[in-house]
Design a protein that fits this description.
Shape: globular
CATH architecture: 3-Layer(aba) Sandwich
Oligomer: single chain
Distance between the termini: 9 Å
Order of helices and strands: EHEEHEHEHEHHE
Low-confidence stretches: 221-225
Helix content: 25-40%
């Protein structure tokens, strides 16, 4: 980031989990934070724009709330049906919705905010998954959507070398979405989303070369200037 003024971040899917944890951390580091959530959210200090990222009208509302942008975090995700179906049984309507949320909405937001991000030499973080690169039975729809997001990230990084563009695999977390992937199972051994935040803060602060990264490989957090 080239400006010394208060930086601005837009985080989608910030009603819970990692998005909410990251929003709180950025607010604590004196960022202006705009968040999107499909549920009621009270987040003191943030600009909350409720809605669904797959809605063009909602994306227009997000654009109206942002006059400059240093960081775009495409965190909102759709798992698809639970229990996870094999590809032979995957409902196509649900698959379309997964792709709308996990691939097309991030692309639409990137297109919308590229002028601001270019002006700020900003950062884009697209939340990925190990299911994007590993073949897990039942994860075909979600995993292929994240694989598409990874490729979108890689191409964008090649096309926009002045930006820092990352696909980040945060690893397993104790979230509602992860629980939905394993209905009836005890996932209390998974780490809380808050444990991933230091890695993301360090990524934002240090801006390594664009690419696909694993949160567990990122060093301990540094203070964001």
């Amino acid at each position: 980031m080239t400006s010394t003024s208060q930086p601005t971040a837009l985080i989608t899917g910030a009603g819970r989990g990692l998005g909410l944890a990251l929003a709180r951390a950025l607010l604590a580091n004196n960022w202006r934070v705009v968040v999107d959530a499909r549920r009621d959210l009270v987040l003191p200090g943030a600009v909350v724009v409720p809605g669904d990222v797959t809605s063009p009208a909602h994306r227009s509302a997000l654009a109206a709330a942002v006059t400059r942008l240093d960081l775009l975090v495409n965190n909102a995700s759709d798992l698809g049906p639970s229990p996870l179906p094999r590809l032979a049984d995957a409902p196509l309507a649900a698959a379309r919705q997964v792709y709308e949320t996990n691939v097309l909405a991030p692309l639409a937001l990137i297109q919308c905010f590229l002028p601001q991000l270019r002006a700020a030499h900003g950062t884009i973080v697209n939340l990925s998954s190990d299911a994007a690169v590993a073949a897990y039975p039942g994860w075909g729809v979600y995993g292929s959507s994240k694989a598409a997001l990874d490729q979108l990230t890689a191409v964008l990084a090649a096309e926009e070398p002045e930006l820092a563009v990352y696909a980040v695999d945060p690893g397993d977390m104790r979230t509602e979405m992860h629980q939905a992937a394993f209905p009836g199972e005890d996932i209390s051994d998974r780490p809380a989303p808050e444990t991933v935040v230091p890695a993301l803060l360090n990524l934002i602060a240090t801006r390594p070369p664009s690419g696909r990264l694993l949160a567990k490989d990122l060093a301990e957090t540094q203070e964001i200037a």
